[in-house]
Structure formats: structure tokens, C-alpha cells
Amino acid sequence: MTLPSKTRLLDTVSTPADLKGRSRDDLKQIADELRSEVIDAVSVTGGHLGAGLGVVELTLAIHSVYDTPEDKLIFDVGHQCYPHKILTGRRDRIRTLRQGDGLSGFTKRAESEYDPFGAAHASTSISAGLGFAKARDLTGKDNKVVCVIGDGAMSAGMAYEAMNNAGSDMSRMLVILNDNDMSIAPPVGAMSHHLSKLVSSRSYRGLRKFAKSVVKPIGLTNQARKAEEYLRGFAMGGTMFEELGFYYVGPIDGHDLDVLLPVLENCKAMESGPVLLHVVTQKGKGYEPAENSADKYHGVAKFNVVTGEQQKSKSGPPSYTKVFAQSLVKEARQDDTIVGITAAMPGGTGMDLFEKEFPERMFDVGIAEQHAVTFAAGLAADGMKPFAAIYSTFLQRGYDQVVHDVAIQSLPVRFAIDRAGLVGADGPTHAGSFDIGYLGALPGMVCMAAADEAELVHMVRTAVEIDDRPSAFRYPRGSGTGVELPEQGQALEIGRGRIVREGTSIAILSYGARLSEALNAADMLAAQGLSCTVADARFAKPLDEELVNRLAKEHEVLITIEEGARGGFGAFVLQHLADAGALDTGLKIRTMHLPDIFQDQDKPELMYAAAGLDARSIAACAIEALGRGNVQDIDRLARA
């Protein structure tokens, strides 16, 4: 006996074209099945769950009404795109999400023609959508452009810059504001739904245009406009978007296909100007554990579908993030000028722990890294000690402010740079690859990297005491190495590294958390009779030139290691040695860094092995440079 499929109708959908002509009842059933498929898939892979569940009906409705991929659908941020991937020919691979050689957790151009624009950072969709709209107009095409942006992403100035641009030249596009926190939405009900259908209809638009033509000759245009804006603003909260040049529709229930479908049809029929459709959704919709969770299951590990219980991580050392947060709390207890700043990532950066103890000294500025940096600069300029905890990949967005507002003025902003190096399942968009180079280029900046969690405690303390210039310390995602943590951090001497192991022929100079792999590599080399010095640079800027000179002078081979892109710590060391004339002595020097590619997601240990930054690769590099030893023996030791 064959059991009926739980996804009977979804099984008939291979591409969005298969949704055309379906009855509303069928589409509602497909939505239910799609939601179940998302829940089931993420229970296997882990990933972003709540955001996708919140846009099931919206995604289905857009693909039903619009003609993707000819019509461009741009998600912002991409973690809400799992239902979209299932509907666009990727259902058979959906259980490879965020895995090695699997589907990306975000939209990705190289993955599908239905992903016209990659998105993993927030607030980019309207800018990109405007680009698509202009390209369409310049090439004489007639396709539609639809951008789906969350209310959180609307906290970034970039979204408003794009809206101002789009509204000023009346570009034809639809922006869907997915409001899942009720943060800017008035109450949603039958009257609001009715008004939204009304104002998006052709008859209303025609009447509105006719009314404007009547009142203009008799000088009542301004009064009529104010009256209309008052009524629509009172009922629907759209005045702000209207002022930016958008025709506002909403808010409507983003889970009600009886409302969504006709409103989208009306929006599609609009022939000029940008439109903003305001939909209200519930993050985690349709899955009770997610609905009841404080973060609506924003990011989850593998979980039990029935109970919602997430797979617990193995017990072990605390994460670097937690160690940073706890250290900062200890410092703040003794210094009431210490304040914390995060850009919409209090949990991810550990600043939620700081906020629990010092709520009045903790500032979450939203998805606004540029503002976060300059805000921190203002605090520093008036005598406070700001710690801006921002992922490396997100700090890139505020780089101009780091240069202009912080570094040029030598303001003591402390940058706590989380997610330094490779990050596993989130892939290249979230990897902390570039901060060593882009911060190390700035005059006066102090750049540190923690080799282990104890070093991180000391670097927090060091940053507290740096009061005449900006500083940054970087640390990776995940658990520490298990070293004993000091009760209180001790300030490090600025620009001084340390020797961890003494040797004779090979020197390995590590910057950051690859130190443990460097020590393992030294053990492998020692098994072949090759003596290694292992040093922890601690600082990329100012560089410990004395230490570098000693390593270069006393060893045949010098290897630098960093969890960053080419042009970072290794380049700083090479520059110093070149200036000092040490490269003319026959020294064999190798710089080990992340490869000059954007690495796709995988397990972190596999990513580092592929990048050539594991112990085996370090030892093999030393043997190649020295010209002695056996790589096969290294491979044998690595397997053991």
C-alpha cells in the first residue's frame, strides 16, 4: 500500500511556472506543504528558520503573480530565501543547505537564474533593485523588479538612500516591506486590508489622478494632498514613504493569500513610479516552538521537528565570544566609562551579557555599522571608552567611518572583531578575511589577534588602557582551546609578541588562533628531527620588529601564519624585512594566509585544511622551504 504524500501538491511544483493558474485553495494547500518542507529540511541541516517561515505565503504569492526569473525578485537579507529555493528547482538539494558542496544559506547568483542578486548582508535590495530597473529601462525591456526587505534592514541608512534615489526619478519597481516585528506597523485588520486593496486598484489610482487634475487649476493642490496624506497616514502609516516618492500600499496580512494575491496583481499592473507594499508577517509562523521562541528560531542547530528541541553542542571550552563578553563585563564593573555598542547583533557578539548588567551603558544601533562607528567616535571624543563589537565582515561596511571619523582623529574607539577567519556554514559572505589588511593600513591603529581565550582576556584589558588612539582585537567564531582563563586580564606591552617554543632551524610566527595548529606542526616536524621555534605575534601593528629580526637571523626558514587574506600580517612582516635588508641574507620566508578565493561553506576544520592553514599544511610548507624531511611522514602523522 502506498501512503499518500504529505506534500501532494508541492510535489507537482518544479518551478514557479507550475504555480500559474492554480486556485487559491490549491495555493493555500501548497503554502502549508511548503512550510512543512522548510521545517523538515532545516531540522536536518540547521540554519535560519524563523525568517523563512514568515515569508512562505509571501514568496508563494510573488512567484504566482510575477513571471520569475524574467521578473527580478531580490531578497534582503537572503536568510529568508529557503521557501524561494524550494519553489525554484532546488527542492531536491534543500537538505544540503549550508553544507560542503551544498546550497548556500543565502541567495547566490551562481546557484540559480532565480537568484538575480546575492544577499547575505542587510539593506542592499533596494539599491540593487534600482540598478535592475535602470538596466531594464536602458535596454528597452519590460520586466518587473520586486525587492523584499525586512523591517530590521530598514534601520540602515543605505535603504533610505536607495529609496530617495528611486523616488526622485520615479523608477518603476515594487518594494515589499516585510514587517515581522510590528515595529512600525499600526494594527492590522479587515478595514486596513480593504483600504489596501482599494488604494492599489486601478479605479482608485484613476480617481486620485482625476482629483489632482481638478484641484490644481483652482489652487487647492496642497490642501488636497495634505488631506489625503492625513487620512492615509492615519489609517496606514504611509506618509513617510510617500514623502520619499513611493506610492504606499498597506499594511496587509502577509499570511492571507486572499489579500496578498489581488494586491500583488494590482501592484504589478501599476505602470509608473516606485511602489512600497507594507506586509505584516509573523517570524516563525506555523511552527509553535519558533513562534514561542524569543528569537523566533532565527538561527537554529539541527532539531527534533515534533518537540522543537535543538541538538545541543558538545560540552567543552567556552566560546571566544562569551570569553570576550565576560571579560568586558569584569572591566566595566571597575570602570563606569566603558560602554558597549553593537549593530543589531547583541546575541551574536555576546553584548547581550553586557546589557544584562549595564543596560544603560549598552547601545544597539540597529543594522547601521557606519552609524555605529561614528557614534562610538563621538562617545570616545567626550571621554567614554566605547567597545564596538562588530563582526569582521560587517565592519567592512563602516570602513570609511573607521578611517575618517576614528583613525584620522586618533580617537580611542575599541573594536572587538568577532568572526575573524573562516566561519563554516555561513560561507564567504560572513568570513572575516580582510580586517587585518584594511585596519593595518591605518596610521596609529593598534591591531591585535588572540591566539587563545586567555590571550583574549588580556587583549580586552589592553584595549581598556589604550586611551590615545584606536585599537582592535580579533578572535574567531567557536570554542576556545581550553586553556585556563586568568581571573583578571593583564595589559600587554604594545607591539610585543612572545616566544612559545624555542628551536633552531624553522621559525613559525603565528598571528591569531592558528597558534595551536602551529604547535601541532612543530611536533610533526620534531618527529623528523627538525627543530622549530613557535612564536605568537600578538600584534600586527605595531609589529614586533625586534622579534621578527631575531627569528629571521637565527633560523633558516621563517613562516608567517594568519587567518586573513593576502596583504595582511605576512605582508607587514615582508615589508619590514625588505626595509631592513634581511631578505638579502638567504632567509627562506613563506607567508601562509587564506587563499585568494572566496571559499564556499563547509565544516571549519575542512575549510582550514582546504585553505592550507592546518598543522599538516604548515609542516609541509616548512619541509618544502627547508628542503629536508618527508611530507609522506607528515601525512602519516596528520592521519594519526
Question: Quick gist of this model?
Answer:
With 640 residues, the chain is of the alpha/beta class.
Structural descriptors:
about 650 residues, alpha/beta, Rossmann fold, 3 domains, seven-stranded mixed beta sheet, five-stranded parallel beta sheet, about 15% strand, globular
Report the structural category.
Answer: alpha/beta
CATH class of the largest domain: Alpha Beta
CATH A-level architecture of the largest domain: 3-Layer(aba) Sandwich
* Strand numbers in spatial order across the main sheet: 7-6-8-9-11-10-15
What fraction of the residues are assigned to beta strands by DSSP? Answer: 5-15%
Helix run count:
26
**What gap, in angstroms, lies between the N and C termini?**
50 Å
Task: Give the rounded overall mean pLDDT.
Answer: 89
Give the fraction of residues assigned to helices. Answer: 40-55%
Poorly predicted ranges: 182-187, 229-236
CATH homologous superfamily identity of the largest domain: Thiamin diphosphate (ThDP)-binding fold, Pyr/PP domains
Query: In one word, what is the shape?
Result: globular
According to DSSP, the number of beta strands is: 17
User: Oligomeric state of the chains?
Assistant: single chain
Give a written overview of the molecule.
The chain has 640 residues and is an alpha/beta fold. It has three domains: 23-292, Thiamin diphosphate (ThDP)-binding fold, Pyr/PP domains (Rossmann fold); 320-474, Thiamin diphosphate (ThDP)-binding fold, Pyr/PP domains (Rossmann fold); 498-639, Rossmann fold (3-Layer(aba) Sandwich), CATH 3.40.50.920. It contains 26 helices and 17 strands. The protein is globular and about 85 Å long. It starts with 23 loop residues before the first helix and ends with a helix. 50% of the residues are buried.
